[in-house]
Every structure is written in C-alpha cells, then in structure tokens.
C-alpha cells in the first residue's frame, strides 16, 4: 500500500539519519536532504512522478556507507543493504517489488564514476540529483 509522499520523506529521513552520523563530511544528512529535494524537482520537471517514490528511497540510502573505510565501495554496500531489507522496506515504504529493485540499483549506479549504464530512469534521476541537478534557478 502506497503512503503519502510527505510521510515517506519524513520516514526516510528518520530511518537513515543514524547512518549519516557515521559518514564522511561530504555525505552527511544535509547532503541527503538536498539530493532528495533535487529528486522531487527532477521528477516533477520530467513529469515522471511514477518514479518519485523509488527515487526518494534510492536518494535516502545511496550514501549510507560512505565512510573513510568504505568510500570506494560504498555504493556496493548501499545496494546490498537495500536488497537485504527488501521485504521490510517494501512494507515500511509502501513500495512494489520493482520500485524497491529500482531504488537498490539507484544506490549502486549513483556514482559519477559509474559507467555501466543505468538500470532504470530511477537510477538516472538519483545520479543527476546527487550531482546537484537541477542547479539553483533552473
């Protein structure tokens, strides 16, 4: 069962905040809030509100393992984390199986160095949002 977007955003921030207390300075909760905001703007501008819920989950979880030790492989750990929590996340965040899978792949494929192509539009949206798109005023 789908939940309201505002409730989803609040729930995601509550759930991921403890992870971002342990991440490097560039990847703390303020960065995640910015990425989530960018995701919402991109989905609206592209008229892809069908991607919003999965993209918000991907944005919330994409950097949860971005620590000094795991920096180079944090995307692999974030991907695995979302997949490992599949059943719980589907219930908690009201996602379908496909939405959850797309959110996990968005975690995997968000890095600027990713050159494997994107699994879905959700990955493209999260990657763009993480890179700071849209710029202020766009």
For this entry, give a set of tags.
138 residues; mainly alpha; 7 helices; 62% helix; globular
Which helices and strands appear, and what pairs or packs with what?
Elements: H1 5-20, H2 29-45, H3 52-61, H4 74-84, H5 86-93, H6 97-109, H7 121-130
Helix pairs in contact: 1-2, 1-3, 2-3, 2-7, 3-6, 3-7, 4-6, 6-7
Folded structure, characterized:
This protein has 138 residues and is an all-alpha fold. Helix content is 62%, strand content 0%. It contains 7 helices and no strands. The longest helix has 17 residues, at 29-45. It starts with a helix and ends in an 8-residue tail after the last helix.
Outline of this structure?
α2 runs antiparallel to α3 (52-61). The chain has seven helices and no strands. The protein has 138 residues and is an all-alpha fold.
Indicate the mean pLDDT: 89
What is the percent of helical residues?
Answer: 55-70%
Note the run of SSEs as H and E: HHHHHHH
Relative strand content: under 5%
Largest sheet: none
Number of strands: 0
The residue ranges in which pLDDT falls below 50 over 5 or more consecutive positions are none
